[in-house]
């Protein structure tokens, strides 16, 4: 079949009775011969595009590698406290001071440390979340050694009071180094705050379900003339609770004969006991102390009695406070505390109490409160 020139010119091709229109594009718009595609464009495959970098995964992998490096370093240096101290600083700088695996492995290596190195380790472990585990490990080492000299040196090197308290309590519970014979030498260089902790912990340890056994243990300390009063007052307070249950009259006589330093713990328990129905006996006890020249002790006992005997009876407490000798150091404090407590509860009722008592000192205290709190709050 012949193809007509006119049809070819018009752009038609006829084949098998079918006409196909061939569209010729203008070269000015679609002729790619002038801007052929680049080889990279020809080879482009969208499936080969790389995913964006996963920085979190990279950091996780880096962190794991860093952690493993520290674990390996701990294993290599487990017999070298100096090297472990250097590692401790690096671990905390790297932010791994709270990692459980690192902490567990590190705690197993503390045996060879000296007291100074252990205190340096606590300082080096700056991560607060992980420091507790390190302190626990240090306490285990100190308790296992049960060495009074080692303990004293360690406590002196630890600056944080709460950590010292933890170490003291663990040592008291877990060792027998705080015997009556050794106690004086152990506490003489401790700060007052640490002796308070030691006294509380030792009193708790010496107490048991058997009152007679507890009493015997406590008395083995209380009979010593070199007993530190800061520690001793807690032991005396514990003994006083036992005596009051067994024989209140004997307890009162025993308490009266205590040295002033030890009596601080016992007097409060005696005042609590006498506050229920025996306020006059308690007042007589305080007056006896005054006559014996124990003014400060009498004053503290009066403070304790006032709080125990007149909890919400502010008028009774104020009347009782006014009856105390004016030479008592805490007399004004007893009066002021009760005026404030009454005013906070009911300002109008307080004014009525003050008017009835008609005491110049109490009136001035009330007026100062009313002026500072015009709304009565």
Describe what this molecule looks like in 3D.
It is elongated, with a radius of gyration of 42 Å. It starts with a helix and ends in a 5-residue tail after the last helix. Strand 1 and strand 2 (18-21) form a beta hairpin. The protein contains 22 helices and two strands. The protein is mainly α. It has helices at 5-10, 27-30, 39-42, 55-76, 81-93, 100-107, 115-124, 128-145, 148-157, 161-174, 180-187, 192-206, 211-222, 229-246, 248-256, 260-274, 279-291, 295-309, 314-323, 331-345, 347-357, 360-372, and strands spanning 12-15, 18-21. It has a two-stranded antiparallel ribbon. 70% of the residues lie in helices and 2% in strands. Among the domains are: 69-172; 210-309.
Spell out the blueprint of helices and strands.
Blueprint (H helix, E strand, L loop, with lengths): L4 H6 L1 E4 L2 E4 L5 H4 L8 H4 L12 H22 L4 H13 L6 H8 L7 H10 L3 H18 L2 H10 L3 H14 L5 H8 L4 H15 L4 H12 L6 H18 L1 H9 L3 H15 L4 H13 L3 H15 L4 H10 L7 H15 L1 H11 L2 H13 L5
Antiparallel strand pairs: 1-2
How many individual β-strands?
A: 2
In what range is the share of β-strand residues?
under 5%
What level of helicity do the residues show?
55-70%
Q: Choose one word for the global shape.
A: elongated
Biggest sheet descriptor: 2 strands, antiparallel
- The averaged pLDDT comes out at 84
User: How many helices does DSSP assign?
Assistant: 22
Distance between the termini: 117 Å
Q: Give the oligomer, counting copies of the same chain as homo and different chains as hetero.
A: single chain
How are the strands of the largest sheet arranged?
1-2
Query: Which structural class do you get from the secondary structure elements?
Result: mainly alpha
Task: List unreliable stretches of 5+ residues.
Answer: 1-34, 55-60
Spell out the helices and strands N to C: HEEHHHHHHHHHHHHHHHHHHHHH
Whole-angstrom Rg: 42 Å
